[in-house]
Structure formats: structure tokens, C-alpha cells
Structure prediction request, 297 residues.
Amino acid sequence: MSQFTPDADWLHWHLSPSKPAFKVPEGAVDAHCHVFGPAAQFPFAPERKYTPCDASKHQLWALRDHLGFSRNVIVQATCHGADNRAMVDALASSQGLARGVATVKATISDDELHALHNAGVRGVRFNFVKRLVDALPFDELNTIATRIKKLGWHIVIYFESQDLPDLYDFFTALPTTVVVDHMGRPDVTKPVDGPEFALFLKLLEENEHFWSKVSCPERLSVAGPNNHYADVIPFAKMVVERFPERVLWGTDWPHPNLKSHMPDDGALVDMIPKIAPTAELQRKLLIDNPMRLYWAD
Ligand code: 0GY
Prediction:
């Protein structure tokens, strides 16, 4: 038992996801997922904005196997702050089948950065979603960017679409490969060919070092699970087809902060052929791209 009680409105992740009808290609990577705790071993950060239920590395490996995936990219979740121990512990027990994206402070030492690298970390996450974090000032983020560039790492950015105009110039000046979480969280009630999504597309179009995760239909959809998140498909399909070499896909297990419904991870996998309709697009999305970014060595 730990001293942490999950938030009252916290939905537990799906305990018996369906077996997807879509068979992912051999070697597929779930390139966006998290581990939470276990809190008794890896306490949540005092500055966190939510308290989740535990979601352990063993439970993540079980999901990976059940869905037919081979590898994971574990993204440090905000509930652990800049204490990367739970994520690093998962990488250490993955037998090389997981890589990580860390959260670090500008004051991190070179030794600590190298230890993260040796553990399998290949990127840092800059989070601008206000309900999740108090974002670091730009100068601190720039210091981190310059330091992690030396390790060949990339930067994952998480923001909501309404904030992109203000963040655009900061993002495009970043010195490394940049991966946008969840397509910049578009408002899918707006047209896919409208001005808001056009700004996100321009970001990728004009900056060849920008990538996007085409993940999280369950967060973006208004149509919801009963309609198979159909309203998200045109957005994700457009990104996959326009930038096939720069897209990643992930489950987002254990789905932090979902309050209206918890997705069936098998159903999320079954969306892949709808957004990446050919075998070639699926191979790039699930294997070639994540392997290039996370297992280049
Ligand atoms: C996600 C989404 C969320 C949370 C986090 O690190 C986190 O706490 O990533 C969210 O609530 O939108 O992408 O996993």
C-alpha cells in the first residue's frame, strides 16, 4: 500500500482490452505510453496536478504482448515530475525493448544526463498543457535543448492547439528534432482544412525536423468510442499521408486524466488501418520511424 489515493474522478485503465482485429506488423513500436509508480516504490511528485492509480511496467509489457507489439517508448508522465526513476526502472527491465523520454530540469548534471542515456532515454518532453504543469520559462527550456542536443536526443512537445500561435516561434527555433504529441491536440469539431489545423500542418510542412504522433483519438474525439472516434480519422489520416516518414503511433496507456470514458486499447489498435491505409504506411508508422528515432544505435 502507498500513501497515494487516486483522484476520485480518475478512471482506471481497461483491465481486459479486446484482441485487435488488425494484426500489427512484426516489430511494431508503441511509441507513446507511460508507467505510474507503483507509488509505494516510486512516489508521485509533490508538484503533480493529478494522482493516478498505479500502472506498472509488468502491466505495460502484458499489454504490449496482448496487442501484438514488440517495443515501447515510455514517456515520463507529469505525475512523476522530473523524477524519472519509475520510467528508468521500466527501461532497465525491458531487455532493450523499451526506450524513454524524460523530464529534466536545466540544472541536471552531465553525469545524470549520461546515466539517462545509458538507461535508454533518447528525448526530453517540454509540456505546455496548463492543467498538467507549470511550464518552465523559455530560457530554461533552451538551456535543456542545447544540452540534450549533444547527446543526439530529440524534444517532445505537448501543447493544445489554441496555444500554438504563441508558441510557434519558440518551437521552430529549437535545435533538435521535435516530436509533437497528439497532432497538437486539434479541435476536431473544426474542419480538417480550416485555419487552425492549417497552422499545425504548416509547422510540419515548413520544418522538416518536426514529427507528429498521430495518437489519442480518445482524447480528441467528440463522437466518442461508440462512433469509433470517427471524427479524429480525417485529421490523423491527413498527417500520416502527408508526412509518412515523420509520424509515430502510441496507445497512450494507461490514459492519464480520462474522465468520461476509458478506451479499449484493442479498439485503438483497430484504428491504425483507418489512418494508415496501406501496408507501407503502417510499416513506416509502426516500425521504420520509431526505430530510426529511438533505436538508431
Ligand atoms: C498524455 C496525456 C496527458 C497527460 C500526460 O504526462 C502527463 O501527465 O501526458 C493528458 O492528460 O493529456 O499524452 O499522455
Notes: Strands lie at 29-33, 71-75, 98-102, 121-127, 154-158, 178-180, 210-213, 247-248. The chain has one domain: 29-294. Residues 29-294 form a domain with the TIM Barrel fold (CATH 3.20.20.140). The radius of gyration is 18 Å.
